Amino acid sequence: MLLFLPGLAQAVSHAPLRATLSVFYLGIFPSVFAYVAWAYVLSKNPASVAVSFLYFSPALTILIAWLWLKEIPTVLSLLGRILSISGVVIVNNAREIGIS
What range does the domain containing 24 cover? Predict the structure, then answer.
């Protein structure tokens, strides 16, 4: 990203405020918030358990798109959602059901 540094000040000064705030928002929330949340989760759980919960992301994405963007999920996306959640359940309950 240092390749863009020489023209950064001029680009920011000419950019609309909305675009500058959007870039600032994308730098703070999706990256910083995600890393802080990930560090917190790893401090409370073993990495093997924490990583398995990343498979909830597709299910949450479909749910957010359906509720917020009014996108109707397809049958294939719902099957993928069921598969990913089933994987999380199996991994987190492997010892109880006899899988090691």
Answer: 1-44
Burial 44-71 (b: 16+ CB within 10 A, else e): eeeeeeeebeebeeebeebeeeeeeeee
- 85 and 54 in a single domain? The answer is yes
- CA–CA distance, 14 with 40 (Å, rounded to integer): 38
User: In sequence order, which residues have a C-beta less than 8 Å from that of residue 77 and are 6 or more positions away?
Assistant: 62
The per-residue pLDDT for range 12-64, each reduced to its tens digit, is 889 999 999 998 898 888 888 888 989 999 999 888 888 877 877 877 888 88
Same domain, 58 and 32: no
pLDDT digits (tens, 9 = 90+) for 74-93: 999 889 888 888 887 887 78
